[in-house]
Amino acid sequence: MAVVIDRRPLWIIILTKGFRPLFFIILTILFWYMMTSTPPQGLTKEGLRAMAIFSVTLLLWVSHALPLAITSIFAMIAVPLAGVLDTREAYSLFGNEAVFFILGAFILAAAVMHSGLSSRIAFRILERFGRTPGRLLLTIFLLAAFLSFFMSEHAVAAMLFPIALEIAKALDLKPARSNYGKLLFLSLAWGCIIGGVATFLGGARVPLASGILKELTGEGIDFLGYTIAVIPTVAVMLFVGFYTLKRIFPIDVESTEEATMVLSRKNRNMGKMGYGEYITGLTLLITVLMWIWMGKRLGLANIALGSVVVLFLFRVVRWKDVEEYVNWGIILMYGGAITLGTALERSGAVEWMVKSSLGHMTIGAWSLIALLSLLSLLLTEGMSNAAVIAVLMPLAVGLAKEFQVDLKAVTYAIAVPAGLAFSLPMATPANAIVVSSGYLKVKDMIKAGVLVSLSAWVVFNFMARVYWPFIGIGAG
Amino acid sequence: MEDPVLLILSTTRTSPGAVDYAIDLAKREGRELIVLFIIETDVVNEVFETFSDIGFIGDKPSSRLTEAMMREFRQRGYAELKEVEERARKKGVKTHSIIEEGDFIKKALWVMEKYHVHRAVAIKKRRSAIASYFVKSQVLKLKELAPCHVEIFEEEKEK
């Protein structure tokens, strides 16, 4: 066996080999220091401890040193152990309506995928509309967005990715070299990203933001109201996203005939629509209508879970199927995030942070929205969407109270940009998968993504300033 | 039979210059060319973990996704091996192709030892100076551990 001598400076070797233990040692020291320090004026002992837990959780979420859900467990147990909330209250936050809504929505999406309905819709639409290179791209882009209106954008990306690979193979696109390959995979990822912010169902971000808002203020966000506020931004961003992609990577294929043949074959192989697909589709449709028209009266989580029961009544899914499609870590992640937000608010840490940082300033409502949306947009490129919400929402609520800004407006200013991560692969699973495919490189994603991210911020703030007052979302 | 020359390709490393060099080297020295294509499973595992840990997608869709990626990488590997074989055949060089899945260094060392490789040609990914300083290149590590001489080519810049 050869002996290898590492000739790099000692400090580099120690840093690279011992980075993980060193990181945890520093984190422990920071945590211990904050927990045992004397609180500054105006901050309670519980507030300082809540901030210590918040800081450690934030660093763990950003660094991915632990899985997100495990970091949430840390927050969950640290809050009662540090005496910030009592144990019963801390654990009761797991039972938040938002957590159960997210769970219900994920189980519904699982049924849609398990029944094959989502694949059937995808193949049929792609075959029907994707006859030319430009139209095929646009169809993928809009299909990804449309499906993300009704199910998690991550699930949509996972479902459409193998189809995109088959199209690339059929067209003999060269990985990392073909512009059409880049366009194909970026259309998929960005369609999912943009579509994912349109409703409560595109991801768990909006329900989480709504859950934190409700826990901290008693106010909530309704299903239809959110979509009405956001849909113009989504429509403009779909146009901007697609136009930008086509400008940066001009189409370099003449025909998509081979791809159409593959899609037609796949479509034929699906056979006739089955009982399970009909029931699942109908259940989803009725559920969405109920969320829209009866969401406030019946409760979003009750409707979601009621629909899950219906699916089981009709034997469309079995529990085993649900387990294969849903990652239960989601309950820990979102339950922990709500607990952390509540701990920060109840301990007075949020109020102290707001007063000691921006309290002496006068910030206009629209400036605050611009600032928060920018912060959310920047953070989401480096950390998970849900973590951005968990980190920013308590602070945003505190700022909204201090400067008397509409709570809904600040919630949207965090929740919407938190989903718009276009530039980096680690920002969201859809980006990670398309870069891993090898059809595009990170620099391709950054080149187009930075431009679209900037556009998203401008479009979002323009809509907030011009459109929101018409639908009753004011600044103050 | 003389000990062969080894050309190491992978899902993330390719360079037409390196391929030509390896073929010419085998021809010049009258040796067989072993073309190894390594499917780096860590890329696929990372995707699985991202979907599972961040996207909270269940095992079934995540597994389907990674299976699709592995299938794609395998097809890509076979296509690349075929292309190299064709180029070598035109120059009259005998080739033996191998496709392996797993860790880049382990698989490359395993083939070097198994076939008593005389000389190897590997491709280094283009990386920033900072990244190179903090995270040592897999190919450089391989060079240090290899029982034979390893010639390193850097990925060509995109035109």
Sheet with most strands: strand arrangement of chain B: 3-2-1-4-5
Apparent shape of chain B: globular
Largest β-sheet summary of chain A? none
What is the quaternary state of this protein?
heterodimer
What share of residues are in beta strands of chain B? 15-25%
**Uncertain parts of chain B:** none
- H/E series of chain B, N to C? EHEHHEHEHHE
**Share of helix among residues of chain B?**
40-55%
In the predicted model, the low-confidence regions of chain A spanning at least 5 consecutive residues are none
Helix content of chain A: over 70%
Q: Beta-strand level of the residues of chain A, as a percent range?
A: under 5%
Output the radius of gyration of chain B: 17 Å
Give a short summary of the structure.
The complex is a heterodimer of chains A (476) and B (159). Chain A has 476 residues and is an all-alpha fold.
List the helices and strands and how they pair.
The complex is a heterodimer of chains A (476) and B (159).
Chain A: H1 10-17, H2 19-36, H3 45-63, H4 68-81, H5 87-92, H6 97-115, H7 117-129, H8 133-150, H9 153-170, H10 179-196, H11 205-217, H12 223-248, H13 257-269, H14 275-298, H15 300-313, H16 319-325, H17 329-346, H18 349-357, H19 365-379, H20 385-402, H21 407-418, H22 429-436, H23 442-466
Chain B: E1 5-10, H1 16-29, E2 33-40, H2 41-53, H3 59-90, E3 95-102, H4 104-114, E4 119-124, H5 129-134, H6 138-145, E5 149-154
Helix pairs in contact in B: 2-3, 4-6
Overview of this protein structure:
The complex is a heterodimer of chains A (476) and B (159). Helix content of chain A is 74%, strand content 0%. With 476 residues, chain A is mainly α. Chain A has one domain (44-471). In chain A, helix 9 runs antiparallel to helix 10. Chain A is globular. Chain A starts with 9 loop residues before the first helix and ends in a 10-residue tail after the last helix. In chain B, 53% of the residues lie in helices and 21% in strands. Chain B has helices spanning 16-29, 41-53, 59-90, 104-114, 129-134, 138-145, and strands at residues 5-10, 33-40, 95-102, 119-124, 149-154. The longest helix of chain B has 32 residues, at 59-90. The mean pLDDT of chain B is 86. Chains A and B meet through helix 1, helix 6, helix 9, helix 16 and helix 17 of A and helix 2, helix 3 and helix 6 of B.
